[in-house]
Amino acid sequence: xxxxxxxxxxxxxxxxxxxxxxxxxxxxxxxxxxxxxxxxxxxxxxxxxxxxxxxxxxxxxxxxxxxxxxxxxxxxxxxxxxxxxxxxxxxxxxxxxxxxxxxxxxxxxxxxxxxxxxxxxxxxxxxxxxxxxxxxxxxxxxxxxxxxxxxxxxxxxxxxxxxxxxxxxxxxxxxxxxxxxxxxxxxxxxxxxxxxxxxxxxxxxxxxxxxxxxxxxxxxxxxxxxxxxxxxxxxxxxxxxxxxxxxxxxxxxxxxxxxxxxxxxxxxxxxxxxxxxxxxxxxxxxxxxxxxxxxxxxxxxxxxxxxx
Length: 308
Known about the structure:
Layout: E1 2-4, H1 10-17, E2 23-25, H2 27-33, H3 48-59, E3 67-70, H4 82-85, H5 99-120, E4 124-130, H6 139-152, E5 158-163, E6 174-179, H7 195-202, E7 207-211, E8 217-221, H8 223-227, H9 233-247, H10 263-268, H11 281-289
Helix pairs in contact: 1-9, 3-5, 3-11
């Protein structure tokens, strides 16, 4: 199992307790352990080395029997950030003149490429967000989902929603997940009841209201808001319990043709049109192509272009 945007790594912890081999990646891990300054952070999907490491981690997994979870950073996608990002279901790309918006778009498109890689290896993936996120309206997300639906039918991807309070979260907080396994619906525990009483007992405030200089009402997150970004321990236990059923019900892997062409032939047949401009794959390619220890097989030498 590979946990991206892992944070405290609660999913990873319970997978290890279940004797499941795991890897967890989060840009904060490198920042905490860094001894010498590097050009890029290999734990950051926005960096060239970070995306390359993510691909390598997935390729190291056992084909047909692994799980990847992507709790992609939600700050730019939620309604509370709408004043800055200018995102909405109709304008989901947002104002990419802002660095935070542009980087969020890059992060999503690179994550979508990783989902396709996981699918092609017969693995299971889950892409999770808080309920107020408009991520699912992003054009590239819709294109990738539509492509999968057209190829394998509408049941290839499942969406499920749940209340994190059902897993002892500090607030009710509604979440949703897209996955290529229908078993993610097991996360939905139904209607949330009895929360108001518990809320009064816990007294958790994730935001405060105030008025700015012009008298307009504003909202500001409190330190407790950060805690809601972490998966509760009980949620990690639930994913660990579901591991076998999730990995055995993955959908989207097409059957191999009887007459399988060589990889070089398939590569040369690819279209030159590529609709993921935010992914900035040319930077990743140049980074890998310039590698001092890169060894290109003879049959690929005339096919792989030089770095730009």
